[in-house]
């Protein structure tokens, strides 16, 4: 297995960890939140640069339904990253306090919150699109047969339970109003466990990714 691909997957795992920290804004100080956001943005740039061959091949070959879906999700994800990054820079009070674009208005804060929450959803879709590839990767490095009972029965059952909890966490944490631009001010529980926050947002991501993977299989690959 190529070393570059192993590094890419490791980078993705670190990015997900930082993303969960960013979703738990109240777990860390504002200073730490801004630096985590800056590191996450640099990792996104690195992630794109390592996949530059995909961008270079955009105007080559035919477009299947799956390829159109993949392109749409990636373009939407990049727009959300840019929206979150630009609004984050405008709100910055520690890294770029005197930046010419500084603007801490309610509108910018609302755009930032909405971009971050939509980003979480679309990252889940992005993971779902690459689910099969990632599953093969982990089977190879852990020396597990794709046809084993563990892969075909036990893991899908476990992921199904995690996804079910993710749906509950999605509703319980009121994510939908954020996506619909209905939240002007976020209210945080500063006493809640960090572990619970990480687990909830991880489960929400798994719910989106697993549902995406299932729908792709049901509508695109199964009919073939």
UniProtKB/TrEMBL annotation:
Domain of life: Bacteria
Positions of transmembrane segments: 9-29, 35-59, 71-96, 116-134, 154-176, 196-216
Record-annotated Flavinylation-associated cytochrome domain positions: 73-131
UniProt xrefs under InterPro entries: DUF4405
Short name of one Pfam family: DUF4405
Record carries keyword Zinc: no
Protein's organism: Limnobaculum zhutongyuii
Name of the protein in its database record: DUF4405 domain-containing protein
Keywords: Membrane, Transmembrane, Transmembrane helix
